[in-house]
Amino acid sequence: MQSTPPRWATTVPTGTATPVATITPALVELRRSGPAIRPQVWGAMLLSLAVLTVLMHRAQLVIDPWQAGNRPFYAAGLLALLARFALPRTSWRHALPLAHFSEYAAIFTMISLMGATASYPVAALTSGYADERLQAIDVAMGFDWVSLYRLVAAHPVLQAVGTVVYRSIYVTPAVLLWCAARGGRHDEAYRFIAGFWLATIITLLLFSLMPAIGPFSYLWHAAIPYMPESEQWQEGLIPALRAYQVHVVDLGHLRGIVSAPSFHTAAAVLYIAAGWRIPALRWWIVGLNAGMLLSTPVEGTHYLVDMVFGAGVAGIALSLMACHRRLTA
Predict the structure, then answer these.
(1) What integer pLDDT is reported at residue 11 of this predicted model?
(2) What's the rounded Cα separation, in Å, for the pair 145 and 304?
(3) Model pTM score
């Protein structure tokens, strides 16, 4: 009995001198229509880029594509394109999940870059500071930022651990997206990315209403025994942006200038919600992001109310995604 060739294999037509390339199973899978939400995510990305362009123009800001700080992003983008479009043409068994992961990671990174970049023109177009009101709310809640800072400044172990868990904001999404790519959960990956995009947009909108220099600059006026991860960029950078003294945004040296809401808090809540659906990693992700939340007041130089607002941002994003799922089911 003659066996039929696999449906992904092509045959060489009679008389053809050049053989037709073999279409691998990974390439067939990638060419299938993806999750229904994917075009919506890409549409949101294009809309975000258009809005960012307008904001940059209004704030008299540009991105110099030739700056050395941009080169790692160009290299990463090229690597992602190769992984997405070249790997599936090979027979490597990990080609398909890596191709999917490169797509997810590229979109997630672009959202992160656009969000961080947008904080600059948004800050430039604001006026005044909300620190007095934010600190008053902290006092009403019984939170003493200065005492917590002194505790961390006096213990190098807390500083080291806090820095590591605070930086894990870049690690957890990579793990979550890789798990989705490896398990073929494409709709889940795109919904996680869409929720992150929503949280970014809501954070920037709220930031425009309550810009602040943060508790470190507002409350601490003595010698600095310990410089947190986020340092004190708001106090100098926001006035410079408002005065149009900054004209170039260096993607390689973006600084965190959003105090309220705390985006680290919003991200941690989103990560925990996504990680909860992965039994093997559930408690690792919960523990890591709980640590990130504990480190956020000092390492992120945030008021406690900033974190309350950040958790609210994540809640709104998750609720909107749940509504979207029900409407498109």
Answers:
(1) 44
(2) 8
(3) 0.89
DSSP state of 93: T
**DSSP state letters, 100-150:** HHHHHHHHHHHHHHHHHHHHHHHHHT--S--HHHHHHHHHHTT--HHHHHH
Backbone angles phi, psi at 187, to 5 degrees: -65, -40
Torsion of the alpha carbons at 15, 21, 22 and 27, rounded to the nearest 10 = -140
For the segment 41-69, what is each residue's pLDDT rounded down to a tens digit? 999 999 999 999 999 999 999 999 998 88
Can you read off the two tokens belonging to residue 22? 């073999």
Distance CA 53, CA 40 (A): 20
Q: What is the pLDDT of residue 36?
A: 82
pLDDT over threshold 80, residue 129: yes
Residue 248, φ and ψ in degrees, nearest 5? -120, 130
Closest CA to 100 of 169, 39, 23, 188: 188
Q: Provide CB contacts within 8 A for 91, sequence distance 6+.
A: 24
Q: Structure tokens of 31?
A: 């060419």
Tokens of 55: 């904001």
pLDDT exceeds 90 at position 29? no
Q: What is the mean pLDDT of residues 69-97?
A: 89
